[in-house]
Design goal:
Elements lengths: L2 H4 L8 E5 L11 E7 L2 E8 L7 H4 L9 H5 L8 H14 L5 H29 L3 H22 L8 E2 L2 E2 L7 H24 L2 H7 L7 H7 L4 H4 L7 H4 L20 H24 L20 E8 L4 E8 L8 E5 L1 H5 L3 H5 L4 H11 L3 H5 L1
Length: about 375
């Protein structure tokens, strides 16, 4: 037998492996129809809609205030970030200005929400790749934030205490020592993550060079948030288009030019530090005063107009587009610009040519929440 014939491989047919919607590593109800050549990914078709709840349509039958709890159920891992985006959009529509104290409380809770989301992203990434202990560390630390959420809003996950013009509850006295303690202990927590996750050689092999997303492709697809910054593009809405009182705080925007899963992981770890910086500054300068502006009991749109407001959510640019109708107490139309939905569009591109195991890595580092993607 010649050497040429000895090394010849028989041709194989492509076959399809369905990942989800029950698969735990899809981070929700996503169905990934993956075409394989051996263990190499030829293509991946992302099929959504398994957790669709018609949230945007429901908004048309709810008053501006009644719809606030529904927004918390979009990105249910980010606490009060979706309600913040919505309430600020309504305030822009109705020309309402929150009180100073409410603005600071919102910032504190928004950044704790970002930390909470990133901790679960890091922990679930480790778990998806087989590192159970690392996930337990992240969940353990996240529980402290859940305790603080419960102190403020009475709920541990779906924080809906924001109101148009401010917040419904002030921060209780036991919140402040808990917040200070968490910020003080965060560097030690991150050291543990670096020891257990970042320094793990197996995890490095699973992340480095996997799922590369160039700056050009990220911008072309509309990717935002940590995934965009991990591809080397320096953009953060909190700094570049400030909302609320973010322009009063000093913080850095973590950037990594790697564009791979490793860079997406590292950017989120560094964002934990920057969020803690913002919280500490807000706690130090928290003013006294009312927690909510005086608003009419029934909020009504003054005239036919539309507004769009966006914030830097934990997943990227989260925006609310609201069309008001004159004299109506409900949105005429409402649309959510969901970063998870848009970020998922790059998944087939960054998976092509990779191994099947890299599909799980790419999903985890894109960090989608399907409740937000489906709406």
């Amino acid at each position: 037998m010649s050497a040429e014939k000895a090394t010849h491989q028989l041709p194989t047919d492509h076959y399809i492996v369905n990942v989800g919607p029950q698969h735990p590593s899809t981070h929700g109800g996503a169905h990934l129809q993956t075409v394989l050549d051996g263990e190499i990914i030829v293509d991946t078709v992302v099929k959504l809609g398994y957790v669709h709840r018609s949230v945007e349509k429901i908004a048309e039958s709810k008053t501006f205030t009644q719809f606030i709890p529904y927004t918390a159920r979009l990105d249910y891992l980010s606490g009060c970030l979706p309600p913040l985006a919505y309430t600020q959009a309504v305030e822009k529509l109705l020309d309402i200005f929150p009180t100073e104290r409410a603005e600071y409380i919102r910032i504190i809770m928004a950044e704790f929400s970002r930390i909470s989301s990133h901790l679960l992203c890091i922990g679930s990434l480790a778990l998806d790749l087989g590192a159970t202990t690392a996930c337990i560390y992240c969940v353990r630390d996240r529980e402290q934030i859940m305790d603080m959420f419960e102190m403020v809003g009475g709920q541990r996950l779906l924080l809906s205490f924001l109101r148009v013009g401010g917040v419904s509850h002030d921060l209780p006295e036991n919140f402040y020592p808990a917040a200070r303690r968490f910020i003080k202990e965060l560097p030690k927590m991150i050291d543990e993550y670096h020891a257990v996750i970042t320094g793990n050689e197996i995890l490095q092999r699973r992340l480095k060079g996997v799922g590369r997303l160039s700056t050009e492709d990220a911008l072309a697809y509309g990717v935002t948030g940590p995934n965009l910054r991990a591809s080397g593009f320096d953009y953060d809405i909190r700094r570049d288009d400030p909302y609320g009182i973010y322009d009063r705080f000093k913080f850095e925007v973590p950037i990594d030019s790697g564009g791979d899963a490793w860079a997406r992981y590292l950017v989120r770890v560094e964002e934990l530090v920057q969020s803690a910086r913002i919280i500490e500054q807000a706690l130090d300068s928290l003013p006294e005063g009312d927690i909510c502006a005086k608003t009419p009991r029934l909020l009504k749109a003054p005239e036919n107009q539309d507004v769009y407001h966006h914030i830097e959510s934990s997943k990227g640019e989260l925006g609310f587009y609201i069309v008001g109708a004159a004299g109506k107490d409900k949105p005429h139309r409402l649309h959510v610009r969901a970063p998870s939905f848009i970020n998922l569009q790059v998944l087939p591109m960054i998976c092509r040519g990779a191994k099947f195991q890299d599909l799980i890595t790419n999903i985890a580092t894109l960090d989608p929440v399907l409740g937000e993607a489906d709406r």
